[in-house]
Amino acid sequence: MATDQLSTTFAALADPTRRAILARLAEDGEVTVNELAEPFPFSVQAISRHLKVLERAGLITRGRTAQLRPSRLEGAALREAADWLEQYRDIWEGRLDRLAHHLREIQRKADGDG
Amino acid sequence: MGEHTIVIERLLDAPRELVWQVWTEPDEVTKWWGPEHFTTPREKIEFDLRPGGVCRLTMVGPDGEEYPSDGHFGVVEPPERLSFGEETTDHPMIESGETTIEFIELDERHTRVVITSRLVCADDLIAMAQAGWASQLDKLERLLAA
């Protein structure tokens, strides 16, 4: 997945209402927007906006034919985001690469001076 | 809140005192901290190197976007051990973290650093991650059954 797609996924996951929607889909499979709106203190329109964000992030897909357009969870995007621990490790590995490089540089300079 | 621990080790060809210096002095940190194509400008690094002291820095991305990290030092034991906690982190999935770095002297020119990070993230994010796997496996099963 491209980095900007991952950013879109992270942005979509940053909202607790959207995470609650995803949790509901994980439990119930296909759910319509009206069913999704029920447990929340928001309008159907507000839930629809959240669903659009989730769809753009690739986290859900929505039925095309039925008028109710039931939503369902899409696992692949979620799994990419779930690899965040590995990304955190990569950040450290990158830092240490540059630290090692910097240490080599300053020691070479010091040897040259000495 | 869910907690995760990751451990990263690296052998460095440098004396321990030098590794400590490069890790704790802002004039040095500015030269290596941050991912490729990112910078950590000297004026955006604020270290008060003592237990409870401020540990704050901001990385700047290639597009000029800023990624601040704000926290405090915990253990400061030169040149052996350093720890810092971050109340805000630059990673969207991580709410807070505490990192300990051990500087182990192997000989006069070699140092091993061991980084232990305890990361905290929202429980429902972990549940999401697991749901992601489960959903993926369901698909695989359907594919294999077809």
Major sheet size, sense and barrel closure of chain A: 2 strands, antiparallel
Number of domains of chain A: 2
Q: Largest interface here, residues on each chain?
A: A-B, 39 and 41 residues
Number of helices of chain A: 6
CATH architecture of the largest domain in chain A: Orthogonal Bundle
State the domain count of chain B: 1
Order of helices and strands of chain A: HHHHEEHH
Category from helices, strands and their pairing of chain B: alpha+beta
Strand order of the largest sheet of chain B: 1-7-6-5-4-3-2
Give your account of this protein's structure.
The complex is a heterodimer of chains A (114) and B (146). Chain A contains six helices and two strands; from the N terminus they run H-H-H-H-E-E-H-H. Chain A is mainly α and 114 residues long. Chain A folds into two domains: 3-81, Arc Repressor Mutant, subunit A (Orthogonal Bundle); 83-114. In chain A, strands 1-2 form a two-stranded antiparallel ribbon. In chain A, strand 1 and strand 2 form a beta hairpin. The longest helix of chain A has 30 residues, at 84-113. A seven-stranded antiparallel beta sheet of chain B has the order 1-7-6-5-4-3-2. Chain B contains three helices and seven strands. Chain B starts with a strand and ends with a helix. The longest helix of chain B is centred in the last third of the chain and has 23 residues, at 123-145. In chain B, strand 6 and strand 7 form a beta hairpin. With 146 residues, chain B is α+β, with helices and mostly antiparallel strands. Classes of the chains: A mainly alpha (114), B alpha+beta (146). The interface between A and B is large, with 39 and 41 residues.
